[in-house]
Amino acid sequence: MALALPPITGPLVRTGLPGTRSAELLARQDRQESNARAYPRRLPIALKRGSGSYVEDVDGNVFIDFLTGAGVLALGYGHPELVAAVQRQAEILTHGLDFPTEVKDEFTTRLLGLLPGELRDHARVHFCGPSGADAVDAAIKLCKKATGRAEVIAFQGGFHGMSHSAMALSSDATPRAGVANVMPGVHFFPFPRCHRCPFGLTPDSCDTNCATYLERSLRDTHSGMAKPAAVLLELVQGEGGTVVAPPRFVHRLRTLTRELDIPLIVDEVQTGGGRTGRWFAFEHYDMEPDVIVLSKMVSGIGMPVAVIAYHERLDGWAPGSHTGTFRGNQLAFAAGAEFIRIVERDGVLANVQARGAQAAERLRQLRDRHPDVVVDTRGLGLMLGVEFGRPGGGPWPEAARAIQREALTRGLIVEVGGSHQTVLRMLPPLNVDESTMDIALTVLDAAVEAFRAAEDGRGSTS
Fold this sequence. Notes:
- The chain is built from 14 helices and 17 strands.
- By secondary structure, the chain is of the alpha/beta class.
- Strand 13 (374-380) and strand 14 form a beta hairpin.
């Protein structure tokens, strides 16, 4: 029987951060865990329990959580129907390798049913290891095997995971520093980050110039670029700072890859499962990729599962060509099938669109009030970003970190990312309600005001 817990109804920070018990656990973590741990360094709390959009630390402080396990908690903490689905399945079968089971068949059928048109009719699914990086690895291996080619095109600002090959496909040089012999043959091309154009051009031409540069490189026999096995793309760059790909760029890229017979892999690890207001981000672009990479929200509750869905013409694997012990997570399949049912029954995607519009308007107002600090606000659905810059230009990572901390002291958890770590990122639960969204954005507004007041007091806003 599930443990009955009192409801969490709003943010309330009772102590300094970290509180006494959190400080004790953070100190133990510092002694026992690797130096690679990241989140508790900027968000110094130890977690106890969660409910819906809220999480409580061990000192009794309650926060609105707009990080949600790096986006895995699609319906927030402890959704009763998802919890019940996991509990039922735990009594039946928890692990099944790649044997067929009834719950796996139900999940696979529901997942394939979400795909549009041509892709749905000719799709194959492969279950990978438990992380998005595992699925990225599988997608690259699939395309190399199918095409017989070696090179891969990725994009500046992209992030695809921390495994050896996924790290090689991610543009941030910091994790690769000191790691020799990462996967060769990766070529990074400009992504249309039109607010900071990689070519230094005006925003109205940035997207087409990125596409033109890529097209010329692939068509020119003297460019030095071999025909690649795949092009790997995020339609919304998450860790890259919530940067949304412009439609013109995506359409030209899809046309180009089709003409040159280059498989297009769309990494939907952060976007897939309804984050953008559609089941998949590519649906916003009226296009179909050749391979889709999914993880994070697929189970709806944080049960690890990763999957690639791809056109059957690419299925050149022999039996055992790509395996993984934990690809048969029956608990994730049970939760995932229930998650899809709940989203369709409760109109959750409509809520994502409504709350996304609510957030976009509030963030626009924030930018208008603080144009010397907030240089851009952007997003798609409930994948939201606020970028900070110095008055007169230039990135301001110190502002983003300080505002993240100010928000935490007021009861809101947000993440920092993007180039130079200047973007506050928000990944609310898909079923977040209007009131909670309003409270969270009010807290963020107060955090920006507090930062500006502190800077004015120091006389150092330049």
